């Protein structure tokens, strides 16, 4: 700026001399014009000092030549930091665990209606959505395709899942035709006798109904008198009320499932559904088995414990009044193999032959 003012003063002074001496003024003005033109061309802006080419910042801050490289380097570092930050944020937002996300929605629904939400349609939707890549498909079996089973008896469709070497129904059985299957007459129920509950968690069956005792008793080649108060010594695969090509799992087959999911101590955690269990007793449903806390029915007609436990019959007897079952509780991660009275109503999961 100082140089600019000095050159401007020289211009005005040289022009005043031109009035007194014509020849001298011409020489002086020629010199002055050169000096004025130099100053105007070097001027880069109201706040910039001339002589520094393309080194000033956009804010008008004067940047010394030796600072240009440093400034550019800092800007590059700053830009890289912004890009890295934005990339990290983008990756963070896009890596939301689907699993965690859907579990959150289920818990919200469950909390709004209490334990009884185990009988809501939202619970079935949640448990169905958790069956993922573990589902099996088979082009050899038209009834089992893309992880679904269609029961030809009533047209109902169930999700299926392959765990280890076994293929299971990933939903509780909801077969109720007591005309075609006489064993079901008076021996199966919807929880609290509400039909909508069957759509969510299937039906509750006595052991005699689960093994289809009437069919066994009327078998022309090998009639067996099975049920409460009678021990018939079933052997081999027992179809019971399962669809064709499926059967009621035995004690040993439940044990094989536990082994496939990492052992009995952890089986409850990974087999339980992600929503519906009382007091945050939900599982991870890591294998897509989606065990729902469907509760049970006692022999005197009383329903209880929906949200608290899941009981599943086996085809294996213990004694005349008792049969084995698998069950899960809300308060721990253990899976139990125990026995209970044959005339209690529990859930049924079928296993592929």
Word description of this protein:
This protein has helices at 2-17, 22-42, 65-94, 98-113, 121-129, 195-201, 207-210, 213-217, 251-260, 264-271, and strands spanning 144-145, 148-150, 157-163, 166-169, 188-189, 204-205, 246-247, 296-297, 303-304, 309-317, 322-329, 335-341, 351-352. The chain is α+β, with helices and mostly antiparallel strands. The strands form five sheets. The protein has a four-stranded antiparallel sheet with strand order 1-2-3-4, with no helix packed on it. Strands 10-11-12 form a three-stranded antiparallel sheet. The protein has a two-stranded antiparallel sheet with strand order 5-6. A hairpin with a 5-residue loop joins β8 (296-297) and β9 (303-304).
